[in-house]
Fold this protein.
Amino acid sequence: MDSATTTLPPPPPPPSSESAPLLSDSTLEQASPQEDHCVASITEDHEVTCWGCGLCLILSPYTPIFKCGWCGAITNHNARKNDNTYFWWRRLRDRCFVCVLLLFMLFIIGGGIWAIYPIVFSVSYFCGIFHMTTSIVLSVTTIVTYFLAAFRSPGIPPLIPWGSYPAVGKGGLDGYTFCNYCSKPKSPNSHHCRSCGMCVLDMDHHCPFIGNCVGAANHRVFIIFLISAVISNLYVSLISLFTAFRIWPPIRHVPIAVLNSPSDYMLVYSFLKDIALSFSTSVESLSLRGFVLIYLFLASVSVEIGLGVLLWQQLSYVYQGKTYLSHLSSRGTNRASKKDCQNIVRFFGCPYSATRCLLGFWNSRKTHKK
């Protein structure tokens, strides 16, 4: 990327002919007999107007990307606005994902109330009250954080003056590029999302399951939603497994005598076969409540694994002081970010005094490690 020469407004006019002395051609030749006078002609093909400050730039030929020497705005002549035909299709896809996820969460909550609450309250009154309180807190936290992550604006780049030389000072648009979709400046840490149709500040990624981008304004609440969802699914899997164990029909025809016999391949095979037969027999007599508990357990475990992997990836990027897009852009380069637990503390907005004792030993150990 070349730095273009900026042509500032013309200097004041020269003094009038009445006050300036006139020199003849012979006098000019005698004043500089050994100097060469070169006149450079600039064609119109090398003059480009900067989109940031409106000044005239003098470019070298074949310069597709250049930076203004006055305001610092970057212009890319190769950037073209892509076709946005599938914008409404992507928006419809995101809305469908949001509706499906909301129905799934409501089904988990409703199925848990119908299948788990009577069994837990039959164990003891204290267990029922504890389960009800925990379920309400986890459900409200998960749903509220999901709505905030899905319907809050992910963050837009700051609006700054551009396009006029008096309004744009020197270096006022340093590193800014022009977004061909939004037709306005785009800061260096912004990215345009074609699914949302807007530029997003500190964009991490576009999540179709929340129908929104994850950016500077909702990144924190998105990670809080992941933490709440992982804890909720873990609790649902444990409580559904406990309830299913309470109402499961007894497994009959288990050959206990096989366990006391010498180990043999055929004996072990027959033992496992009898257990599978007894298990299938007990499943046939299982009630509808038991099948709902089995589904709750399998669904919560699968969702918990997927969200756990996503949460670990997000926290690792926050620990490195990066986002997902910045991680992709820095791949293959020598740029190294500072990895520190203070990145996580600053991300969640915790005061340093509250974490001094907890992170002091960890950071000192990493600092003195050889």
Remarks:
- The two ends are 39 Å apart (CA to CA).
- The mean pLDDT is 76.
